[in-house]
Amino acid sequence: MKVYDQEVATRRQVDTSPRSGQAPEISVFLPVYNEEPNILPLHAKLDEALNRLGRSAEIIYVDDGSTDGSLRILREVAEQDGRVRVVALKRNYGQTAAMAAGIDAAQGEVLIPMDADMQNDPADIIRLLDKLDEGFDVVSGWRKNRQDKLITRKIPSMIANRLISWIGGVPLHDYGCSLKAYRREALQDVRLYGEMHRFIPIYASWVGARVSEIPVEHHPRTMGKSKYGLSRTLKVVFDLMTIKFMASYQTKPIYVFGSFGMLAFFVSVAAGLYAVFLKLFHKADFVQTPLPILAIVMFAVGIQFLLMGLLAEMLVRTYHESQEKSIYAVREKIGFQERES
Length: 341
Fold this sequence. Notes:
- By secondary structure, the chain is α/β, with parallel strands linked by helices.
- It has 2 domains: 3-228 and 326-340, Alpha-Beta Complex (Spore Coat Polysaccharide Biosynthesis Protein SpsA, Chain A), CATH 3.90.550; 249-322.
- The chain contains 11 helices and 8 strands.
- It has an 8-stranded mixed sheet with strand order 7-5-6-4-1-2-3-8, sandwiched between helices.
- The radius of gyration is 25 Å and the shape is elongated.
């Protein structure tokens, strides 16, 4: 008997699979990266939570290039559960790309992402849906009693969440919580790049979505190894720069480019006048005052690098969206043929 069979043999199954030719009401998708010991107990809890809903649902596992036995177990789960589909990426692209793959594969009216490390609780899905039914388009989970390390996880996250709320204009306590619920239309125009998955509520808000937040359970990790560290803080800072730029200057980049240009021009004029002043009143030749020239050169180099970075961000987005380029590559799909036929 396979591993999955042993796990579910004593549980009563409730068929919440979508009928042939019909889209499911709910799509739950989970990025998976080296979570072999967590998959079966997580799927058991997810199965129980979806059975209680009484709504048609699909479960999409996105294997993000796992190097352990995660994909093997996902194959077994897909064979035994008709609601399960698996998208296996060719390599490890990161959580944002895996989330994008899940969104692209999902067919439900409501999309629910969550982590596969057993720290999110599938029992909270019904609470997200209840809040969504109040008229909201996006409901974000808030790990109010977060079970993580204080110094390396909770404090940096608290600071980052406040910065993101301030810059993005959407006041949420916990942007890093993967457990959320989205109406499909709220994600239609969202394009994900880099490490931008945490900013999906901001993107949705920009297109008019109503965003809310509710506290959800958060469990300590008991199996597997965390994939995140303090290095993510620096990525968040860079992402915030991009978010601010895209929010303020996406349709009017001349404002930011022009502002930096005027600032550079002011420094250039000030430095030139200062050099002339030294020449006329202190009899100092220009070659004796290298500091103004050095300041101009270094300032110009700094401006060039910053503007080149912002320009490159715009070019990358244009490249992907105009040509419909994907940010991930799929190795195989499991369980799709039956659904499509």
